[in-house]
Amino acid sequence: MKKLTFLTSMIAVLVIAISAFSAGPNLMSYQGQVLTSGGAPVANGSYPAVFSFYPVPAGGILLWSESGSITTSAGLFTHTLGSITAIPTSAFTANPDVWLDVTVNGQVQTPRTQLTSASNAISVGTVDGATGGTIGSGIYLGKPLVSNGYVSLFSSSSASSTGGLYDWSGQGAALLLSEETGINHAILIPDGNGTGGEFQVYNGLGGWAFNVDGNRFGSGQPYISMDGLSDVGFDLTTIGNNSVLFPSDAIAAPEILDEPGIANNWAYGGNILNTLAMQDLVTVTISIPAPGYIVLSGDVGEIDHYGTTSLSWAFTQIDETAGGSIDGANPRVTGAYNFPSVDYFFYTAHCQRIYYKAAGTYTFRLEAQQGGASAGATVRAWYPSLQAVYYPTSYGTVAISAMPAEAGAFEFKQMMGSTGASPATGAIATETYSIDLRELELKVAKSRAETERLGRELAEARLKEQLNSKPVPADDNK
Prior knowledge:
About 10% of the residues lie in helices and about 45% in strands. It has 3 domains: about 5-125, Immunoglobulin-like (Sandwich), CATH 2.60.40.1930; about 150-255; about 260-440, Jelly Rolls (Sandwich), CATH 2.60.120. A hairpin with a 6-residue loop joins strand 13 (about 185-190) and strand 14. The protein is mainly beta.
């Protein structure tokens, strides 16, 4: 409380209160009581009054002033500062201290009253001159039906904005990031076709280099594009080849994971074959990146039969297992029942076999064995070679012949015949089946689809668990 002595022999007891400020004019509530020199309230009535702001306790430059009248009741009065003449925000933002000077009925109040920090709430109207601090609650930029809010960023070296948060043509918030020259280098904006957003990174030459559209043409599907010396796009509004857009020469064979590939091996040979078990002539190892077909082609450039004029046979085949016996479904046979002499007789053998394998590394062998032979008969194999080619996909029937053990893994198989005991089969009687390796391909595809389904369900379950356990944030708008 302050006692003020006026020329009219009145004493004013003044109380100042600062109200909160809205988006409208800056207003301050001012209350006081005017008393006579004897301490009694002045007579009820109207008295002229002047209210002024100064930056110093005495003298100084006038910052703001308004003139009017006050009406007392038992000496009490209320006046709203700024109701006659608007209070400029700069009065507080440009001055660290502001002093109130009051004149009632021609008498100047002394000393002036320093306005407390509450009055500086007026400076919230702008953050000019702010040097940092902590904001403990929300900031509201603009209000519905009033204006669009925005935040602009500047660097100390440029007058151009280096970024900001804006309303994007009434569609939602947009984030713009710029260089010191004011040229945009990235923006995040709402999608103009509905919900969703779009992100763009610019190349510094006035165009954008990278673009992500979360709702392409309002389809609810994303689109990603990159522009430079070559253009690349991922348009998920389409399917198949049209969904990926690359330059025609962008993909080379080493960049394709399941590109068809080849492995080959060759040996000089000269192996003398025996009648006890299959023996390796040459092996080849191939690594495949994904499930697919391995086509094996084997050749023996020269198989010599000599030393007898009677029976001499040889069996050549492709197999995975070293040693072993004759595969009655896949052997190639050379030789004869009778020879004109004991001199050399030359043959060649070509073998082919197809496997369906999962991704991995596999070794195959071209092997041979002497079969039925008379006394003195000798068989020698020269110049064997084995080639393996990987194909990721089938485009038609992939039928092979199989022994009962191999055919047992197939649901669809057809018995082609049964061989009897003869020199040509190594005295083996067995059944031979026709199977289609595409059945294995279908099983792998179904297994992969089921694994992907279970993976999606697991990811969805984890996401729901995280959302359910996430604390609900307090409503800052309350």
